[in-house]
Specification:
Elements: H1 4-23, H2 27-56, H3 62-92, H4 97-104, H5 118-121, H6 140-148
Helix pairs in contact: 1-2, 2-3
């Protein structure tokens, strides 16, 4: 068998994995795409090991040994990755990567005093209602100082 067949199949698998990582929003599907990429690497390792062992008359099969290590590391990665995804899903209620990325970049849903931000319930001070604050009505000087700050 020629080396071209497994190399083309590995390239197709790797490209499918890259597409899955870049296009998917679900964290579990991204982990599956990473597994596709690792399987493409494993296929290349075994194919080149067989091809090189025929030319060099080598009996070591180092490509197959590296493949076993890659499979073991991939199994550990999937186990830890799924545990993290499940923990984040239980805490946040979603596994959407875009929403998790916003959380990681420091966009807080709560303000520093524990109140929700102005985009959450619309209880900011530009509504014209002086009684919308938890502190009660403010004197006009405090409202003016707050508006200039």
């Amino acid at each position: 068998m020629h080396l071209v067949y497994p190399a083309v199949l590995a390239a197709l698998l790797f490209c499918t994995g890259i597409y899955g990582v870049l296009a998917r929003r679900n964290a579990i599907l991204v982990l599956m795409s990473v597994e596709l990429m690792l399987n493409a690497v494993n296929l290349n390792l075994v194919a080149f090991d067989v091809w090189l062992s025929r030319t060099a008359e080598e009996k070591l099969h180092s490509g197959q040994a590296l493949t076993l290590f890659t499979i073991a590391i991939a199994a550990a990665e999937i186990g830890i990755g799924l545990a993290i995804v499940l923990a984040v899903y239980r805490a946040r209620g979603t596994s959407d990567i875009d929403k998790l990325r916003d959380t990681a970049e420091g966009h807080e849903t709560d303000g520093p005093d524990g109140n929700h931000g102005p985009d959450d319930n619309g209880d900011d001070n530009d509504s014209g209602n002086d009684n919308s604050n938890d502190n009660g009505p403010q004197p006009p000087t405090a409202k003016k100082a707050e508006a200039t700050a």
